[in-house]
Write a structure and sequence with these properties.
460 residues, three-stranded antiparallel beta sheet, Phosphorylase Kinase, domain 1, alpha+beta, Kinase-like_dom_sf, single chain, 2 domains, Aminoglycoside_PTrfase, seven-stranded antiparallel beta sheet
Length: 460
């Protein structure tokens, strides 16, 4: 049986300690009759005579960062999953958590109803304690499939078969993700839904509070709790990205201060007059291996784990590359070539190769959709094809994650310095210290700006 989400089976005391309070609150004996009642309700709504299904909670549990999942099995052979948030108990579950759960479940129901994107069916959800379980929950279909990483790095296959399976993954995703273009918004944030699960607006977005977490680490020399906060919706994509960036305190040392300022310059130099004219789009919060379930041959079975779903600027949205194809643009998380690398990685050349393939597939998917889609939407999609999306994504990561910032700035500067006309003797340390000391020559900063603009024009 495959794992139902970005989770791992329990490995004992550590998982139990994190989830102990919600497990103490949840009465496991209530789960089977509750799931059976939801099953019967579905039969009645479908016009069928309700049966008397029996349900059992399978022994294996799955633990994610924010949730515990209980696989369920009915005597009909059907399998469901009960998803309970780690904070799903009194005095801990708050309005922010309720908004996140509602957005996740409602988005999944919306996509099941209005697209052919493979999404687990949500049978029932509750964003409060006021239900028969006494816990907030999502009760959904169990999808049998493998994490994409198992197929992408399958060492048992010959090269030709492995390549065919990888191409299948990318082919499916290019068509799947394009369907999200039908949902556009006037602001960045978390989607809000009416009682019929129709999107009606945008609300605050939950984010990791990295400044608070880093302060916790400095104060207590420990980082064992995820601290979260909310940022308000933004109608201006530049203001949205700068809001992410300005949540963080500037670092103490001169070089890092300069890197911090250089990142802000990179953000300021983006072509905002063009980008600000585009709507915000609905996108998956973590478009990566673990949230894409596939068959052994690479056929996409489901996109799972929509917790934290958001509306974002179009250039960071559903038409971006799958996360594993841009790992070389986030050096802190990219381990290729390192002696102690604990994850499998593609080489930079391979990643560039697959980005080219994926971009061509998206181009073909756009052409296929052109007859039926809105002309303006098609024009915006074609424009995205000519953007350097890895640069834009890396800027977003650096703005949001101060730990990743220095290495991303170094990566960007390295690429900028390769552009035609860039001064051979201008180095990153000189730019960073110059910015920190406020004595960088205008001509030097202008050279960096011109190189950055040339980099943006070289689509990847």
């Amino acid at each position: 049986m495959s794992q139902p989400s970005d989770v791992a089976p329990s490995d004992g005391e550590d998982d139990m300690a994190v989830f102990q309070q919600v497990l103490d609150h949840l009465d496991l004996a209530k789960i089977p009759p509750f799931a059976s009642s939801i099953y019967q309700q579905g039969e009645r709504e479908a016009g069928r005579t309700p049966t008397c299904p029996s349900c059992s909670v399978l022994p294996e549990r799955f633990f994610g960062s924010n949730n515990i999942l209980f696989p369920l099995e009915f005597n009909t052979g059907e399998k469901w999953v009960l998803k309970i948030p780690v904070n799903g108990y009194p005095d801990r579950f708050n309005d922010m958590h309720a908004r996140v759960l509602t957005a996740e479940a409602s988005t999944m129901q919306l996509l099941r109803r209005e697209t052919t994107i493979p999404i687990p069916t949500v049978f029932s959800f509750s964003a409060s304690m006021d239900n028969d379980l006494g816990c907030p929950y999502i009760l959904m279909e169990y999808i049998d499939g493998k994490s994409t990483s198992h197929v992408w790095f399958n060492e048992e296959l010959d090269d030709a078969t492995l390549e065919r399976h990888r191409i299948q993954v990318l082919q499916d995703l290019s068509k799947i993700m394009l369907q999200l273009n039908k949902f556009t918004f006037s602001e960045a944030g978390s989607p809000i839904f009416d009682d019929g699960n129709n999107p009606i607006g945008v609300g605050p977005l939950r984010v990791m509070d990295m400044p608070a977490m880093l302060e916790e680490l400095r104060t207590n020399d420990v980082w064992d709790t995820v601290i979260q906060s909310e940022i308000q919706p933004a109608s201006d994509p530049k203001a949205w990205m700068l809001c992410m960036f300005e949540r963080h305190e500037p670092p103490d040392d001169k070089f890092s201060q300069g890197a911090h300022q250089l990142l802000k310059h990179f953000i300021e130099w983006l072509p905002w007059s063009e980008l600000a004219q585009e709507p915000f789009v609905l996108t998956h919060p973590d478009f990566n291996f673990q949230n894409i379930l596939v068959s052994d041959e690479g056929k996409v079975c489901a996109l799972i784990d929509w917790e934290g779903v958001s509306t974002v600027p179009r250039f960071l949205g559903n038409e971006r590359y799958p996360g594993w194809l841009t790992r070389d643009w986030d050096p802190m998380n990219y381990g290729y070539g390192m002696e102690e690398c604990f994850v499998q990685e593609n080489s930079p050349e391979e990643l560039s190769h697959y980005r080219d393939i994926y971009r061509d597939m998206v181009k073909s998917a756009i052409a296929e959709a052109e007859a039926d889609a809105d002309a303006n939407c098609i024009a915006l999609s074609k424009r995205n094809l000519h953007r350097h999306l890895p640069v834009l994504e890396s800027l977003s990561i650096a703005a949001d994650q101060p730990i990743n910032l220095p290495e991303i700035v170094q990566k960007l500067f390295t690429e900028v310095s390769k552009q035609e006309g860039f001064p051979e003797d201008l180095e990153l340390w000189e730019v960073c210290f110059g910015l920190a000391d406020d004595d960088l020559e205008d001509e030097q900063l202008e050279s960096v700006r011109r190189g950055f603009e040339k980099l943006l024009q070289s689509a990847q």
